[in-house]
Structure formats: C-alpha cells, structure tokens
Amino acid sequence: MKKKIIIFPAAVCLVFSAILLTCCKQNPSPDYQKQYRDYPIKPVEFTKVRLNDRFWKPRIDKNLQVTIPASFKKCEETGRIENFKVAGKLKKGAFRGFFPFDDSDLYKIIEGASYSLAIHSDPILSAYLDSIITYIAAAQEPDGYLETWRTINPDKPPTDWSGEKRWSNIQSGHELYNMGHLYEASVAHYIATGKRTLLDIALKNADLIVNTFGPSKIITVPGHEEIEIGLVKLYRATGEQKYLDEAKFFIDHRGVIEGREKLYGEYNQDNMPVIKQSEAVGHAVRACYFYSGVADVGALTGDTACIHALERIWNNVVSKKIYLTGGIGARAEGEQFGLNYELPNATAYNETCAAIASILWNYRMFLMSGDGKYIDVMERTLYNGMLAGISSDGHHFFYPNPLASDGKSKFNMGSCSRSAWFDCSCCPSNVTRFMPSIPGYVYATSENQLFVNLYVGDSATMVISGTPVSITQSTDYPWDSSIRLQINPDKAEKFDLKLRIPGWARNEIMTNDLYHYTGQQHGTVTIKVNGKEISPKFEKGYAGINRQWKKGDVVEISLPMDIKQVVADQKVAEDRGKVAFECGPIVYCAEEADNPGGLENFRIYNKTGFTREFRNDFLDGVMVISALNPATNPAGTPQDKLVMIPYYAWSNRGCGKMAVWFNSL
Q1: Same domain flag for 574 and 594
Q2: Main-chain dihedrals φ then ψ at residue 19, nearest 5 degrees
Q3: What gap in Å lies between CA 194 and CA 179, rounded to an integer?
C-alpha cells in the first residue's frame, strides 16, 4: 500500500537552498500541534517571487535553457544514466565511472530541473524526467537499496571506496550521501509536478535506512554528510517522525565512539560531538552540509545546544577561515579548511560546492535568528565565490576558485580555465539545482515582519499577519545603489518592514576584523517612505519601519556604493601589504587580458584615483573599475590605469593571469 503524503500547515518543505515551501495538513492532532517546532522565520518560497532584473533572471533562464540540458547530456555521455539501466537489467553492461557518488550527480540535476518546472511549464523536460525516473525505479532493489555501482556487480564493486558488502565502508562509500540527494530531488519533483514516482522510491529507501541504522541496529554515521538534510525534507513532506528521528540519530552520534569501532576524525567532522565543537575543520562541503542539517534538526527539536555550537563554529569561519569572496576551504589536499588565517590566494581551493553549502548554512542561521550578519556572508558568497563557479555561456565550470592565477597552472582539474565537465562532477550538478532557487532568498516573513534580504528587481506575493501582500522591487543592483519598493497589502495592515542594510554599506565586512575597509566612507544610507526621508530603527543589520501599510506605499533606499579598498588582518600572511577592491557586493580582480603590462608588481598608492564604467556589451554587462595614476607596472614605468572586472567574470576569455590582491604603498 502506498503511503499517504501528509503536509503540514505551519510546517514548510525545504527545497535545496533552505527555501521552505508552505504546506497544509487537515485536522492535525493536538499532540502534533503541541510538539511541532520550526524556524521562527519563513522564507517566501521561490515560486512566489518572479524576477525581472537584468542580473539574476538571465542567469536563471540560462540555467534552464543551457546548463540543465548540457548536464543531462553529460550524464548520458558518461554513463551516469546508463548505470541505472544496467542496474535495473534494462540493458546489459558494466558500471561506467569510477566514483561511488556518480549517482548523486543525476539526482541533483533532477532536483534543479524540478525547481525549474515549478516556475516554467515544460512538457518535454517533464517527460524526460519521467523516463529517467523509470530507470531509477528499475535499479532499486526489492528492499529499497539503491546504489548502481554495487547493484551492477555486488560481489566485486568497482573501487576500493566501495567496501566488500553493503554498509561496509560508510566512511567512503557514499551510500548515505547519494540517498540524501535522492531524497532532496524526490521532494522537489513531487512539489513541482504532484507526481509520487520519485518520492515513492525515496520513501522506500528511507524506510530501509531507518530499519538499518539506529539504536540496537547499526550505529554509525555517514562519511559525507548530506542525508541529514534529505531526511528532514522527507519529514516535512510526510510528517513521518521517524525520518526526523533518523536525521537526529546521525547528528547525535557524530563524534561519539559508543557503539562504533572508530571515529573518522576531523576530516569528516567526526572528532567530537557537535555540541562541543567550536572550529570548522575538515572537508568544507561536508562540514557545511552537516551544519545545515544540524540547524534543521535543532530548529525542529528545539535543541539549543546544537544552535549555540553552530554560532561558535560560524564565528570561527568568518573571523579566521573565509576569503574575501566568501569562498571557504583553503586546502586542495582533502578539499578542506586550513588552520586559522591560512588563506593562500593562488592555491586557494574554495570549491564551488563549498560556496553553495555555505549559503545553505548561513541562510538557516538567519532563519533561526533574524540577524542580517548571516545574509551579509550569504550575499558576499552568492555574488562572488559561488557565481565564479559557472561561465557566462552556462556550461563551463570551476571546481576550485582561487584568488590568483599565473595563467598557466592547471588548477581546475587539469585546466587553467573553466571546464565543461569533470570526472568528479559534483560542482556542475550542484550549480544546476542551486540557480533556480535564488528567488527564494529575497524575502522572508515572521508573524508580523517582512524581511527584505536581497535587492533584485522582482514582483512577489506573501501573507503577513493573515493579510495577502504583494511587493514590487525595482533596482539595477548590484550595479546601482537605488532601490524602490512598492508595498500593496490587500487591506491596510500594520507590520514591520525590515530592510537589510548590507555590511558593505555600513563600512563593515562580515562583522569582524579579518578584513576591513581603508579610509572614510563617502556616502550615507537614506530611506524614504512616500517621498519623505525617515530615520528608522536599526537592529541586527536591518532598518525597521513599523507602520500601517496601505496599497501604493513606496519605500526608496539609497546605499553608498563607493569603490572601496580592502586590507586583511596581518595574520593573513599572503595579503600583508596588499589591497583589494570592492564596489557594492562585488569583489573585483584584474586580468592579464585587460592589463597586458603585467599584474604581479603593480603598486597602488594611497592617493590612487578610480573611475567606474558600466559596459553593457562586455562579459554580459559589468561595471568596470579603473585605478588611475599613480600606479606602476613591473618595470616601474607609469601605467595609465589598472583595469578591474568583477571576480565572478574572470576566465571567460581563456587562460591568463589574474589577481584579487595588489601590492600597495
């Protein structure tokens, strides 16, 4: 008998980027209503926010039109789809590939395609997903187990990562990691299409996991965290407590030796219980997936000890282990965090997946606290560390994202520029599922508050204090500092409008001293309501306006978008005596293509002047910054200017030198 899907009224279904999709349940039991907890702040789901700007909308459209089809094609070419057919005995063959986590790439692309279907009807794409799901169903074993690399040849799995039998190498085999991505994809597909086909597969597997791992069963934790997020999504979609309990089981037993043969150690965040942790260690992607799962479970269970631990770890990251671009994971070896202040530029790893995982974690921290400092880090990562991971053509990718390049070193999995695909293709598939979720980060609500977190041209609808409210945002952000919001409640309604004032507009970088701006800020923040300037209350990074809102009310915001020089803490060895540049949320770099005289030994003087020019026909439209005389090239002769472009746009013109940090005098 098929399980009945029950969806809850005050609950929400998290789609990939911590976007919570509002659900409903008929006649919830009193016990459930009493026990249920969740984040106090709820995002306005991405399906309720329609972008119309020239920055994000074209990129999200390109993801649907170019990135997703190209990624599915790569899955066909590399055998990722064929593996499911072979495992399901729909055709003969052997496992194609090397990595036990290859299945997860297909799940992530299905998730991204499903998000796109939730916004844009596409019968061809929908039918294509249906066909892939039939292959996945065929590959699933009768008890729910689903791993193509083991099912195809159970007696001799393809790699040493696999282990001799099921669950025999949980640390490296990725069996649970793959299933986490399956669960996320299944919920996204169900929400987008109403079809249970993939969801039923996921639930059958999840029941196997619940029956296999737990007290008086196998006591262990996944080597690569992810299933915790997926289990929470299944809980939100079904109301089945066992899925939330299983996620909590995996979290509670990480770093605990009782019942286990060994701990995996720092690399897997398995060195001590999370409630005792205070430093980000190990593999950066695993870490931030884990922190995201901990936040979900903490919110749903009221576990404040876990939340306090996340706050300590977050403070360690933003004060000692994050790049100016928002990138995390300094070391290529193990794709992991380095020591405190270990932030090299040319060898920085900063995996694209780590940037996405960091966004997920930071957004959850905001949902828990309502503090804009988390959105500041999220925005910095979104516009810089994450966006650099994909090319302007939509189908070439960075795996690592360094802050300097000599134009020759093949840092990107054998290339000195972006690549169309990788043997380990977690980053391309992650981008496909993240991009369509971006509109869901713009707004959030609580009972009587509307948070405006990101500034992007859009129209949106939401409910505040029981009143439907529509909002229209007009802006050319991130290139322009002017934002106009028109508020249209169905009826006059009093609530707090909370406008995030970005840290960069307050002369502050990520609320700590790891990086700071030099010199004085030239402009001020101004806010007007219906043409009259006001002085709103400022708290936790937000300007709050509490009033009776009526149809047609207009709020105007002007932010001081100056060109700013940045210096790093002296403990960051590679950045001593150097400066970097920002304008608004955008971090800038210089490329050899625009500066043929060289980059390495440029000197930026304290009195260097700057100009900026928006070039619509260049790199899909960017603001170009030029540092004017006095500056010198490597030979010591005067240069007219040092030309800089947004960091995210570098390497779209082939291999070449690049730098974010420049010597200063």
Answers
A1: yes
A2: -80, 130
A3: 21
- Residue 378's closest CA among 19, 637, 86? 19
Position 526, amino acid: T
Handedness of CA 187, 191, 197, 203 (dihedral sign): positive
Would you state the pLDDT for residue 590? 96
Residue 518 forms part of a structural domain:
no
- φ, ψ for residue 445 (rounded to 5)? -135, 155
Which residues span the domain enclosing 528?
A: 446-502+524-558
Contacts of 300 (CB under 8 A, 6+ apart): 36, 37, 38, 232, 235, 244
What SS3 state is found at 387?
helix
* Block residue for tokens 């004017």: 628
168-219 pLDDT, tens digit per residue, is: 899 998 999 999 999 999 999 999 999 999 999 999 999 999 999 999 999 9
| Exposure string for 635-662, b = 16+ CB within 10 A, e = fewer | eeeebebbbbbbbbbbbbeebbbbbbbb
Please list the alpha-helical segments (H only) found in 346-480: 352-369, 372-380, 426-434
**Count of domains for the chain:** 3
Cis check: omega of the bond before 69, within 30 degrees of 0:
no
How many Cα atoms sit within 13 Å of 448 on the Cβ side? 9
Would you call 173 exposed, middle or buried from its count of C-beta atoms within 10 A (0-12, 13-18, 19+)? buried
pLDDT digits (tens, 9 = 90+) for 215-253: 999 999 999 999 999 999 999 999 999 999 999 999 999
